[in-house]
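Blinded run. Sample ID left blank on purpose so nobody reads anything into the name before looking at the predicted structure. Input follows.
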Amino acid sequence: MQKSKFLNIVLAAAVWVLEILLATKSDRPDKVAAAPGDIPLAASLVAAVPFMKKSLGVSAEMHPKPAVVIGSYDKAGKPNIMTAAWAGICNSNPLSIAVSMRPATYSYGNVTDMKSFTVNIPSAEMAKYVDYAGRFSGKDVDKFKETGLTPIKAEFVNAPYVKEFPIVIECELTGFHDLGSHRQFIGKIIDVKADEAILYAAGRVDVNLLNPLIYAGGNYYETGRLIAKVGESLKDIDGKPFVPDYSQRYANETLEVIHNRKSVRHFTDQPVSKVQLETLLRAGMAAPSAVNRQPWVFYVVTQRETLDTLSRQLPYAKMLTQAQAAIVVCGNMEKAGNLQEKGYWVQDCAAATQNILLAAESIGLGAVWTASYPYDDRTQVVIKALSLPENHVPLNVIPIGYPTGEDVPKDKWKPENIIWK
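Blinded prediction complete.
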């Protein structure tokens, strides 16, 4: 390459870098916009030059914000809801919530007059209701009527809550502060109600099951996966210079469930609902099967006497005394096909079983595979206990319940088990 051409290339590259740096200093948003799917230009530059900042002026860039719905009555007793993002816990004792509203809102007058309100926390699936409640005024429409949501009078305060929302918090107004554009209302928490379906073993809210809706940058988001428990990541502090990683991150929930699945043998006495069991069964029936024969049949056991009988007679299913239910996966020999294909029922039912185990993990339940087939003695125990017909062969018994937390996932990654060709 000629020396003059090489110098021209170097000069062009230098000019390109200078243009990028000047663009990031500009206040014009079109200079830093990224193409859809690309890493934002500012983020890529920060990754190359750590801690380089750009002033955004006065901007509400505290993310994420809770997307909650405030319930209140007007003087005539008409229930109303409004969406609020300026809200959060503001005091420990007494435990209190602060929520800010503009005087123009209908709820502003309601809360001022009634001295109480509810904070209704939605799941991400309820984004459309949250958006509606924030776009229309209770002065103009009956939001409960228009959305089909159900107002329920709070048990301890004079305010309505939304029946369909998974968490509702009843608050008594204890004070307010006029801050400028908004009045900040301080509500002492009188009671919290939560759907049983989002609670884990200790009776606390499982955030993964709740899947709360959050607000950021004019959009609604889900919360994402668990990163670390409080105090757990302290071991990663080593005193070395910190360099942030602004590269794109992906939260793959499927892989998260796969790697967190564990064999649960310790259960609480919290009941498992029919809806939860149907969720597991749907997952089982979604499994692949040879020639799509689907040669499976599922027996759902919830009677305590039967669970205890199986526990006593199956050598590796003693945890059934704690489990609240069990699913027995059987092969239906009438669907298994001809003699050549008949053996596939084991693989098909095994795939269905794995789906059930993963589904249990994904909704906060615990489960474990305990074998029946191919052991004749165990198979006969299950056949007798459940009065199975001759053509239903039990592959396994899966105890199901809420885990105590004693059982943890194992890291089974072993590179030596891989042979590359």
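Unblinding after everyone has recorded impressions. The chain has a mean pLDDT of 86.
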